[in-house]
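Anyone able to model this chain together with pyridoxal-5'-phosphate?
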Amino acid sequence: MIPYSRQSISDEDINEVVRVLQSSHLTQGKEVELFEEAICEYIGSKFAITFNSATSALLAAYAVSDIEPDDEIITTPISFVATSNMFVALGAKPIWCDVKLDGNIDERFIERLITPRTKAIVPVDFAGKPVEIAKINEIAKKHNLLVIQDSSHAFGSSIDGKKIGTFADMTIFSFHAIKPLTTGEGGCVVTDNEEFAKRLRLFRSHGIVKKQLWNSDMVMLGHNFRLTEFAAALGRSQLKRLDNFLHVRDEIAHYYDERFQGNKLFSTIKLENNTTSSRHLYPIILIPALQCPKEDIFTELQERGLGVQVHYKPIYQNSYYIEKFGETRLLVSDDFYRSELSIPCHQEMSMDDAKFVADTFLEVIEKYSYRGCSF
Ligand SMILES: *Cc1c(COP(=O)(O)O)cnc(C)c1O
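re: yes, here you go
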């Protein structure tokens, strides 16, 4: 089975982890700092604060934004649940904004969702394709809102040569095993705001500031959300290889684009000319007639060795959200869920693998096109 995404671990990655395992510090040493410096350099941001997951990084970013009970957060339902879970954990309420055909938040609908209780806009760069961050920032500025960008898919994506992570008040990346760069579990927040950076570091580590000798002072309520030293070493080693990973992903995506161009049974997501994508996912958008046999298509693709997946069930369709916030229906988001299918695209695939995926996919899709939906 070719998974839709997977990690790539080299001998050098392994050696780096072993080096740190044999050193004096497994946590709270120099490796985390070095990894954070390397992230800042790669992204072009002032501060990077690593966490033991993107989920804890999201919670930290929301907490230091002073998000409080009954605050409203405008966000996208087409994401992993953690994007909204972590502000719901602080008592805030999701205000769902519909998406565009590419799965990214539709910036044209944001402004009408703003109320006096709105605190922040939380967009997600779906599949690695950058959101329209300039327009989102403009709306946020006009209404004095924060922009917290969940770029868990988009480490290495860019707009006009500037990396994602340099646009929002805070940007979150995930280093989960199947994300573009991995530390096993891990994540980070990047920001240019020194005050946020300071508070994020405190939140990550019990809210404790070191004083002289044995003395320390706990100045805010914090957690232990630290990354280990060996995870940081893996991250720094991976970061050296990241541009190669992205190159391979991009080549595969371009190959698919060519193979699938003009197909009448599905469409793919186009990138703007001034942007690049980490290609975390390669989403396929089936035509309405293929939404009915999608379960069969999914099963047959898996049986034939394609580790396809669906991204995502709109967050508001989960029982927890229905019980807590009631039913939500958004036209494009609901339709996106019915028609989306992610096919394998990652750095461990050869071009032969990509050809196998494209051939198999086209064959299976063609077969089911005769069945369609009986409207
Ligand atoms: C993966 C992911 C997360 C969570 O990341 P973890 O590092 O697994 O906690 C959050 N948001 C999005 C959009 C993701 O894809």
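Residues 242-369 form a domain with the Aspartate Aminotransferase, domain 1 fold (CATH 3.90.1150.10).
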